[in-house]
Amino acid sequence: MIQKQMQERAKQMLSLGEVTCVLGWKKGDFSTNPQPAVFESEKDLEDLVYDKYCAANLSKYLVELTKKEGKVLVFLKPCDTYSFNQLLKENLIKKERSYIIGIGCEGNMQVDDDMQEIGLLEKCQTCTKTAHMVFDELIGEELTVRQGDDPFEGVLNLEQMSSDERYGFWREELSKCIRCNACRNVCPACNCRKCVFDNNKYDTAQKVNASSFEEQMFHIIRAYHVAGRCTDCGECSRVCPQLIDLHLLNRKFIKDINEFYGEFQAGADTDTPSPLTDFNIDTDPEPGSVHKRG
Amino acid sequence: MFKMAKKDIPNMLTLLGESMDVYAPVKKGKLTNFEDFTEGAELDIDTLKTVKSPKDFFLPQVENLFSATSQGKEINIEAKALRDKPFVIFGVRSCDVRAMEILDSVYLSEPVDKFYEARRENGIILSLACNEPGQTCFCTTFNIDPAHPNADGAMWVINDNIYIEARTEKGENLVKLISKFLQEGSKNEIVQSQTAIREKLNKLPYSDLSLDGLEGNQLLDLFDTPQWEELHKTCLACGICTFICPTCQCYDIKDYDTGGEVVRYRCWDSCMYSDFTLMAHGNIRNSQKERFRQRFMHKLVYHPDNNKGEISCVGCGRCVNKCPSSLNIVKVIKSLAVKCNV
Fold first, then answer.
1. How confident is the model at residue A241 (pLDDT cuts 50, 70, 90)?
2. Is A147's pLDDT higher than 90?
3. Which of B84, B146, B222, B310: disulfide with B130, CB 3.0–4.6 Å?
4. Strand A98-103 to strand A72-76: parallel, antiparallel, or no bridges (unpaired)?
5. Cα(A206)–Cα(B28) distance, rounded to whole angstroms?
6. pTM, full prediction
């Protein structure tokens, strides 16, 4: 069983002093509610779990953890490795302070208020990321590649709406937002040292949606800021308490980037320049052409 | 004790709407929250927990306090009006009712918060017994009885009927307004349902969650315990727990310059945020560990110390369901209680 192998390998690396801590998932009060956790002893590792409920993307936690001395052993699912690469590219985590063990994944489950499983998470239903993009070693059997639904289907539906309908759709969705910032804080691409919406120095701080304009501004600015860097890890929609399909905003940007600048997947590697920071005046369309398209 | 046919509830709420604002659990898509009950709204009294608690109706997420305009050297300050129109919140669960009592002990003690007080005076709460308590519920830890809810009026849904018992003068007046829908009911008719609820409560996963070890004056022991290091480690510092929590009560006050006037407003704040307690000299809590500790010390130690032992958690379990990192107050209580029993 993969969980046992993970525990054994982690204990071994800790005891040999090859890593100083282990980032994985810990048994929760409910079997469907494991918790991202940092393990520092072999005894603690008895509580390490890995199953279909371990949906949390652990890459984000490395931003803080790799600031400290030592080395973190981290278990990453295929999709999480894209976030890792992207953070590496942005110099936000240190590769030499992490040791990645890639683990297989057959999709994570969504649970309801009663902690009962209610089917695959959206991010897993439309999964396209079935291989690890970066790892030091792999544990577990080869993945059976599960054919996900088309991730852009939701975006296509939006594109087919009239602009009034689309505006209405987003007004309705975004007006549900309670500005808890869970989407922002869980997002590996949202990693500014000081978010513009938290910054009291420049009058841009905004703790609340004081008007229907503001509630759109937060999400739209966030979507623009992560455009070209969002790996489509789906964490934003997973954590939204008000069930807003936030990933649709990001996927629209991904789809447009693919169409205008050629296929691009953020986090696939650490070298390819991001299309939005690598403008080529001869071959790339001008922003105006996007506007004309409507 | 009265009863009425469950199917008449929407008509009854519409009638109430003629003399007051009516808020009720309304389903929109997959989401159920307390909203204006207006024509065409889909009433949902089967969903146990709304995502947000009904605290918004007394402590809105944002509200303007006053506006200031200047003419030459004169400054005119105009306070925003206090709520003066009655409203009813239909179908509030026992945990959320207790949460209002906890907010009362903060906002109605001196100096009284006038905005809050006006809403409390105008608000009527009709509570609803929990026929199916949820897996993450632990209200019984705080001696809350979801089979016998408090508030201005209490309600029980039994088969095709809803039983209503007025508990306060406000509740009695409200019952008079809807008398055409009501017939006499007897307390005996709800006993069986209450027994069934209490049996279910005893079987819940958190039914044995105990506060042993948290009583007494242990402020410094708890403040300094090394367990905070472990407990906070994967906290992402978002505000989800504070915003969905029915007892989280902290707010920030800010000014908004519209060009023509300055509006002073207040909005929910979260002790998880980096500028919480930011003052002119700097911040007294500079790490997430300190912020995380603050939230739970406030609920489990500071608030009880100042309010006759009243712990400011009601066991609704919303944080258990929603934290992106699966952290929650149950884990904190378990960890601290262990610490203190050693």
1. very high
2. no
3. B146
4. parallel
5. 27
6. 0.94
The ranges assigned to domains in chain B are 2-202, 219-341
**For an interface test with B, which of A27, A29, A117, A213 has the most B Cβ atoms less than 10 Å from its Cβ?**
A29
Round to whole Å and give the CA distance between B192 and B178.
Answer: 26
Residue A145 pLDDT exceeds 90: no
A164 and A233 housed in the same domain: yes
Instruction: Please tell me which of the candidates B205, B269, B275 has its beta carbon nearest to residue A200.
Output: B275
Q: pLDDT tens digits, residue range A204-227?
A: 788 887 666 666 789 999 999 999
Residue of chain B nearest A116, judged by CA positions: B135
CA pair distance B184, B4, nearest whole angstrom: 9
Whole-number CA gyration radius for chain A: 20
- Is A168 an interface residue toward B (CB < 8 Å)? no
Residue with tokens 């009291």: A200
Whole-angstrom distance, CA of residue A99 vs CA of residue A104:
16
Phi, psi (degrees; rounded to nearest 5) at B264? -95, 125
Identify the domain boundary among A79, A109, A143: A143
- The nearest CA of chain A is from the CA of B249 a distance in Å of 14
- Nearest-Cα distance to chain B for A114, in Å, is 5
Look at A182 and B256 and tell me if their CB atoms are within 8 Å: no
**Structural domain ending residue among the three candidates A90, A120, A143:** A143
Which pair of structure tokens corresponds to residue B295?
Answer: 């939230």
Mean pLDDT, consecutive 10-residue segments, chain B of 342 residues?
96 97 96 94 96 97 94 93 97 98 97 98 98 97 96 97 97 97 94 96 95 79 92 96 98 88 94 91 93 96 93 97 97 81 42
ipTM score assigned to the predicted complex: 0.94
Strands B153-158 and B123-128: parallel
Q: Nearest CA to CA, how far is A35 from chain B (Å)?
A: 5
Q: Could you tell me where the beta strands, DSSP code E, fall in B136-239?
A: 153-158, 161-166, 183-184
Name the closest residue on chain B to residue A30, using Cα atoms. Answer: B205
Q: Which of A24, A87, A58, A230 is nearest to B324 (CA)?
A: A58
Q: Do A113 and B48 count as a contact with CB atoms less than 8 A apart?
A: yes
Give the model confidence (pLDDT) of A74-129 as tens digits: 999 999 999 999 999 999 999 999 999 999 998 999 999 999 999 999 999 999 89
User: Within this chain, do residues A178 and A231 fall inside the same structural domain, yes or no?
Assistant: yes
- Interface residue A261 vs chain B (CB under 8 A): no
Which residue range is the domain that position A139 belongs to?
2-143
Nearest-by-CA chain B residue for A28 = B326
CA nearest to B299, candidates B106, B131, B91, B34 = B106
**Tokens found for residue A227:** 């455009």
Question: C-alpha distances in angstroms, A112 versus A270, B31, B104, B329?
Answer: 37, 12, 31, 19
A29 touching chain B per CB within 8 A: yes
Residues A47, A66: one domain? yes
Q: Distance (Å, rounded) from C-alpha B107 to C-alpha B119?
A: 11
What is the Cα–Cα distance from B164 to B309, expressed in whole angstroms?
Answer: 31
In a domain, A82, yes or no: yes
Of B322, B325, B326, the CB nearest to A241: B322
Residues of B in contact with A241 (CB under 8 A): 51, 240, 243-244, 322
Cβ pair A181:B62 closer than 8 A: no
Distances (CA, A) of B254 to A56, B68, B120, B216, B260: 35, 13, 24, 37, 17
